[in-house]
Protein: Glucose-methanol-choline oxidoreductase N-terminal domain-containing protein
Amino acid sequence: MPTSAQDAIAFSEIDFDYIIVGGGTAGLTVAARLSEDSSLQIGVLEAGELRQDDPAISTPFRSFSLLENPAYDWMFKTIPQKQLNNRSVDWPRGKVVGGSSAINFQSFVRGAPTEYDDWEALGNEGWNWKNLCPYFKKVESFTPIPNGEASARGAYRLSDHGRDGTINTTITDDFASPIYNLWQSTWDKLGVPTVPTAGERTVGVQSWMSSIDAVTGTRSSSLTAYYNPNAARPNLRLLPEASVLSVAFQTEANELVASGVRFIVGDKEYMCRARKEVILAAGTIQSPGILERSGIGSRDILDEHGIEILFENRGVGENLQDHILTAMGYEVSDERYSLDATVGSPERIAAAMAEYQETRSGLFARGSTVGAFTSYEQTGQAVATLEHTVRNSPASSSIQKQHDIQLKRLRDPNIPAFQWAVSPFYMEMLFQEPKPADAKGCIAVVSGVSAPFSRGSIHITSNRPKDSPEIDPRYLEHKADIQLLTAASRQSARLTATAPLSGAIGRVLLPAKPLITDEDYEKHARHVLSTYFHPIGTCSMLPLEDGGVVDSRLIVYGTKNLRVADASVFPLHISGNIQWTVYAVAERAADIVKQGEK
Structure:
């Protein structure tokens, strides 16, 4: 049922203690934890639809059908990127309750421990690996592979996992696919060993976990794991299809006090009240916009849109970071190594769906693919060249602090510089070109940069919440990033030319011409560069003088009781997918709020 005016009125008449803006990955996590206290009234506003028991969402392998689908995806796009030949890049985000945890590819990966220590080094006391590690385990409910084969291959150690958390995780049957054996053995020849997923050592080949319930074969999201089990709580209210306009403030002793939230349902504006706090969890793309529409942000942006300035902070919407990637496509020598023949055959797809519906197994129960993390040292390239580039590139003192940490990571053989994945089919979305008509089974080898040096921004384009913001990641604006992508692409070429993986490779489909010089590799990167869809940093947790938007308690500077708790607060990127870290940060955020209740 669509949200009605009566629903909006009923919601606005409740005196909430905490209002959470955003019913996505982080927002529903915080809501579930705060509503454990029955004396507190918790309200959640979410712009997307509530889609319970939707097979397009719950069926793991159908993730690909959700992207660029306006019923599920906000379908954001970057502005044309100068360094990508003025090409825009798609930025999918979940347009449903559950947010991007409901439409992502379900990869459940975390960063290297010292990367979280780096957050504390940037001025955030208590935000380190030691303090976050318990939350990673609190989130997870890991189900081992029943036959134990993955454990025998070193895919996981039970001691590294949470067993009674909220999000169901498992390793799907990718570990047993023929391409995995070749992938693992070839990386081993190149000096990259297999390491257990979720272990403290992250450099190596991994069988990535997926946020999938191994028993039911369905996606585990913030909706299914955090909201649905608690939806009957009388003190927890969710209002979907409600677009947030701004946070309402009162001024007490020259301090901004959040007193409520203005939101729109249909074409009418409403107001709901918060007695204690407002918590933004609208994500990296939309949380900064809510701050700007509320009068917190850069004077230039707010003046342009006629918004009264309540607290000037030029850091709002800045420090945007994203995981960039490039890819190479190959025809395989044996159909066993690719899924193209299956996904291209209506009969095979129908049979696979019938298998899934009957047994909750097979193709449609699959999640993340196998992958790897490698250090910069393992590319054989000299870090000194990158250091020279970084040292001779202009940067503010605050960004230079981050770049210094990034250079330290690149010198460390135990910190990932690159993230790798092998996809068992042709990925037109990445390749920017259709599959050749005469090509049969294909695979893609994807290589990404764990911590790019470029910094972008996201800002509002109007004072209306339904107008998309200007997303400018400034891809490759820092020259070090193209050097990193070139190093990764050269490593990819070595990987696929090394046995036994080379034995599975037929002709190269992309790039169409051999890459020989650095200029060739750079041209290819600019042509196909895409993203792992891991934007962070636009409401960074940093000291105010370093461009911070929130402090280490996640309180927005200039306010008494407005917090942000989502990926936008990550001050510096981590290696790996961000879903698990978002959950962990949200769990810790809830505990920080609870401590204030005592």
User: Anything to note?
Assistant: Residues 331 and 442 are 4 Å apart (CA to CA). Residues 579-597 form the longest helix (19 residues).
